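$ run holo --ligand "fe (ii) ion" --emit tokens
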Amino acid sequence: MTLLALERLMHEVVREARPVDAAAASLGVDPARLSIYRDFVRHHVRTALDTNLGVTRALLGPDRWGALFEDYLRACPPSSWELNAAAEAFPDFLARQVDEGRPGLHPFHASVAEFEWTQFTVLRHPAVIPPAPAAPTLNPTLTLLEQGWPVVPFLVAWDRGERGAPLPEARASLALLFRHPRTERCCYFAAHDDLLFAIKATHDELDAEAAAAASGHALEAVRGALDRAHELGLVIRP
Amino acid sequence: MSTTIPRLGQPFLGYGVGLRRPHWEGIFDHADRVDFLEILTENFLLAGGRPRTVLERAAAEFPLVLHGTALSIGSVSPLDLDYLDAVDALIDRVRPLWWSDHLCFSSAFGVEYHDLLPVPFTAEALDHVVERVKQVQARQPNIPFLLENPSYYVLYDANEMGEAEFLSEVARRADCGLLLDVNNVYVNSRNHGYDPRAFIDALPLDRVVQLHVAGHEDLGSVIIDTHGAPLIPPVHALLAYTLERTGPVSTLLEWDNALPTLDRLLVENDAVRATGVGALGEIAPWRR
Ligand SMILES: [Fe+2]
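-- output --
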């Protein structure tokens, strides 16, 4: 048997495109042993989804989650050496399932999945947060996520242990996600005027006085907004 | 058989452990019980954030080696140049003593398996693997590449030679090092019914630059290489047997599943060290 033919057979086994017994006979191996590989490959993808999309999984419940996983495994094979990236295509896959009217799914589920995957990308964002910049600077890991559903307040409540709340109403929402400069955890906030103001002032390299003059806001309020953005880790100061 | 400089001239790093996330905080307080660290290459390729911070500290405070699972040296699909570029960038950043991956294919036809599928021990596969090892080595002429013997659960009908012969020929023809996983030898010897000592005797031991040891799970009908338990006494005995023949070779404890507390990991590393010292005597490890 050529190397190509052998690897094609093994590929079909782990992609669950060929029954193990038939492949085992062709390879001259014990089917029970061969199935170990099929089960491991499936398990790795399942683990990547379970760990990176934990809230989505909990919202959907074990039956719906398990059925979606089966279809996802077939539709979206992993293509990156990064194991976590096996979960990357799931938010879009879930959104398509919602669009196609799959029972038991809600567009909010797809938004939560998208949010959870974005959290992972922020955690691994390649930017280095400068420990001591020359001037106030925006956290370079800042990521803006526009969604049709208010995911942030839902997740804040979820983290407080409020798990039985009804799904929220649709509402255009902008979330700010960034990696905290000290804890290196992913922080997220619903964008509100003070945070957006601090982002714009820092981006435009305005100090509190200049930002107050440019915006017509009271200096005290501008200082408060800039201090708060710094405390959150959104703005890094010298 | 021995015509090369032992360990390809690489230093003896002593007794080390794989750096795993739950131990990121505490490991730096235990340089007295851990001589070197091995990191899983793929965990640090996208290294922003916490992984990058930890990696930089690890590289500054310990001798460091890289160990990958995604190279897929035996795959019929082309080498993944994006992956290799990322590995090169990581190597350039942390300057490990060496880097390693497994004799296997872990991706093919555009799909990543995130597992180590065995290559057949055929002349065709041998030519293919030799060619690819030469290609990856050419990218990093100053950082040695080691190929590890994986555990495998099936022995293909297609095999034309034994694993030891295959590995020896790859190492000789591609002029690479070997990472000899002693636990994998034990697991394979039980799963496929051969003498693990004869297997080790058949390898070009002067090319062995690093050893792995780990625990496994015996399910009765098959032993699974879980890296999730302490070493069993026969693996300690096989480690001693190996070291008595190789001389001092850097020995690394792998523990990847059911991760223990740092204390438990250190106790296990002490046990590995005791076996090593029993075989070799006390030998001071190389430090940066
Ligand atoms: Fe190993």
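-- notes --
Chain B has one domain: 6-280.
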